[in-house]
Structure formats: C-alpha cells, structure tokens
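Hi R.,

Here's the chain you asked about this morning:
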Amino acid sequence: LYNANMEIVEYKAKYKEDVKNILVELQEYIVSIDHWHLNIITPDYRKKYFEKTIKNCSVIFLAIEEEKVIGLICGNLIKYDKYDLCDYTCPKTGHIEELIVSKKTRNKGVGQLLLNKMEYYFKSIGCEYCHIDVFEPNEIGKNFYLKNNYTTRMRSLSKKL
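And the predicted structure, written out as tokens:
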C-alpha cells in the first residue's frame, strides 16, 4: 500500500505548483472519459482552476510523499438560504469539491486516507452529512464512494438536442 512516509497535511502555498499539476491530471482523466467531448483543458486551465479551487474550498488536505503532492481533497460547507429552509431541514453538510490521487499512486489507499481525513474534519465541525458530485462516466469514482457507504440521493440527467 502507501509509503509509511506519506503524510496528510493542510494545504501550504509551497505546494501550489504540485496542486496545479494534480488538478490538471484530474481534468485530463475527465476529458478522457467524457463521451460527449464537452470537457476540455484550455491554455489557462491550470492557473484559473487552481484559483477557483483555492477560492471555493474552505479546507484542502494534501497527501505528501517525498515532498511531492500525490493526492488532494478539498471541501467546504454547503450554504443554505432562506428559500432552502422552506422545503428542506438543512442539516449541516460538508461538500467534497475534489478528491484526486495521482495515477502513479492510485490503488494504494491514498484516496481512502484523504476521504477519512475530510470526513473526520466535517464531523469535528458538526456536520451530519457529507456530499460529493461524481461525473457519471467516472465508474472508478462512483465505485469508490459506494464502497464507502455513499448513496445516490439525486441524479442529474442530460440530453443532447
């Protein structure tokens, strides 16, 4: 499994370039499984998606091995508004924005450690639920979450016109 020297740490700016690289690696995978060919990687993807991730995630944990990022998980709290309260009990819920393990270190338990870390964090701040969206063609991701007792609550359906 994973190297005993691997550690899970909160994001630090010194890992900025590694984080950009692993975000690109995830997008390359998503592009490769997108049968509609709608997902792309623009020339400024690396910079812009990193900025979006840093801005939108309240917590980021990194799996570090030999001073390199080999995995990442980031999340935040779901924010409800007054309209949500009209038809939903609005329990405190954490949302995983991204979970990425570098392809060279997959299937070694790194993703499990990152997921455990995020779930523990969410529980520690009083969350009752954890939510994640998974790209439908991502069978590996779906199977991973199902194995970890996640269940489909909503499903988004699309049709090409």
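The chain has four helices and five strands.

Let me know if you need anything else.
M.
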